[in-house]
Amino acid sequence: MGEWRYGVILDAGSSGTRVHIYRWLNSDTALEKASDVQLHSLPVIETDKKWTKKIHPGISTFGEKPGDVGPHHLDELLSHALKYVPLQEVPNTPLFLLATAGMRILPPVQRNAVLAQVCAFAKKTTRFQLPDCDVHVQVIPGETEGLFGWVAANYLLGGFNNPKNHDHGKGHHTYGFLDMGGASAQIAFAPNATEAEKHANDLTLLRLRTVGGASFEYRVFVTTWLGFGVNQARQRYVKALLDSSPDAPELPDPCLPSGLRVTLEGKAIEDASHQDQGPEPQLVGTGKFSECLHQTYPLLEKEKACLDEPCLLNGQHVPAIDFDVNHFVGVSEYWHTTHEIFEMAHKDKAYDFKTYQKQVEEFCTQTWEDIEKGVDKKKWGKKVDEEKAQEVCFKASWLINVLHDGIGVPRVGIEELKGSQNTTKAIIDGAKEKGFLDPFQAVNKINDFEVSWTLGKMVLYASSEISAPSAEALAVGFGSNEPGIPDDFQYPGGSYRAYTKGDEDWHDNLFSDNPRRIPGFLIFVLILVVIGFTLCGRERRKSATQKIVKMFSRRSGGRHASLRRRRGFPGKFFGLGSTPSYERLESGEAADDFELGSIDSASDNDNEHSDSSDGSRIGRTSGWVTPQIKAGVLAGQPPTPTWETGRDIVTQGQGLGLGPPSLFGNAIDRGGLMSRTDSRERLKDGRRSRNTSPSRMRSPMMSSLKET
């Protein structure tokens, strides 16, 4: 195991799957290099924009054909990961595929079949660490997704490492987390002391560990609302329209701009088209946003009985939120719907209800013809196409209802904020300078770092790899709010392995009993053969080589010239005379096998976080952001720590995984070791090998991100 540890997470959402790659210093190396401040901080995780890639659609679409999920979906994502994880570190790199809302609503039989195929394909085609498929490949509950998001947000904002710099009052220093996707929505926050004591049984115990080995705990409330994501809410809204007028050929829709007609599935209808003349009812936009707000309000289902007071949406229990100390950040749709159109994605623009509702009203009361012209002229930015424009009015109305009538976030700009000194002008000027101290702030990135629940997963995983200072120290992970280790406690999956100088050189461990390594004896024999062949003299080498060539030529029909053209350096070494330089075995698609080029992330019209107008600017944070001050460091406090790696890479947080801890040396399926042989067999049969397949062994000519 080398100085750096890597982790790969596949976020399998409802609209697509995104691969995330993270890395962090081996715990021994981090301990050796850490300053006193860093010893009391969480591990530093690094990532980069080019390490992330998303493809569509989601794996839930393979429910009826689970066998296709590997070659037609995972292949591209795993190939991308193998481009950036160093070859020698692949067997030490844990791989997780954690599915969310899209897979939760799939029938159990189909869901299990897809997950089984995911694990089988990953084991067969790669050497990533997959000791337990039940832990590494699973559908996670919405509560777990929300908890990971809460960890990521607080890690990046500095709520963990610098609690004194994030005093919200009443001894509170963490931030609440809101997430909304296509199918579900989550909330996670640490209630104030009074509510935490009153609702102790409803909280989740979370335990982390610093670089120095010290543990600390938080008690967090987390819940999810399945069916309350924007896409599912829209489906319930359309059903309500149909139920109110079951026989009407046209259904007036105030959440669509006037002049726009769409199918029940939301596809625009052109005049005289097949959809226009078909029997299916049409939705006809009226562009009345105030009426849209009124008609989406019942979707909150606040009338449902609350069996455990207090409740918010859908009759689900949530402890009372003290907005004096509970300051929330919202990601995914909370960001896209408030910023991508109405603020041109200006990241420093804070959410202000009065300003936001005015902007939405101005947009949604325009005719569809005027909106189309604005889209063509890029009036709202390059990311806003006609599809986004026709959906945003419903999404905005749903978000406003969820935030203010559902969760109860104060309407900034209209309602007076108790204890807040921020004026409306300050809110509009920017959120960064104010330190995220408003009741709600939509974010996509914090100091150029994407706020993703996958980061929270890695924070836990890396934290769990740090050795405990004593046998009595409690494990890292989360579970029921009980003393000690509760029965349902979930371990991130990390196992500690001491790092020694030179351990990064794989040849130092040829005779290791690690099942992932090529048997040392065979390599030793091969080395002796090469040495003997080299020392036997030029003429004997030449004679032996010619005999081998003749033997193969008889089997291959005498194609000597083709073989010689490809000899290059080996031909010179073995005494075959001057030969041309190396020529690639394949042309076209596979000609890129030995090039490590950047991969452009697929654009994502539904909850894409990776794209940024700032490109892949890199910096370091590890939760050291101090939002109260623009410079990011409070006067008199220690400066932002950096590891002396000489690198310019985005740092974020550290590790995570679920299930009982296990040593990385556990037996792993080594099907991936035969990948080069498989590739050659396909070439011999005359078929082109696919250069993006993860089953292909990486060339030594590939250069990964330079490390120090």
UniProtKB/TrEMBL annotation:
Active site: E145 (proton acceptor)
Keyword terms: ATP-binding, Hydrolase, Membrane, Nucleotide-binding, Transmembrane, Transmembrane helix
Gene Ontology CC terms, in alphabetical order: Golgi apparatus; membrane
Ranges where the record places region Disordered: 597-708
GO BP terms, alphabetized: CTP metabolic process; UDP catabolic process
Bias kind Low complexity: ranges: 691-708
Key word Transmembrane helix present: yes
Keyword Hydrolase: yes
Record-stated family: Belongs to the GDA1/CD39 NTPase family.
Name listed for the protein in its UniProt record: Uncharacterized protein
Provenance organism: Polyplosphaeria fusca
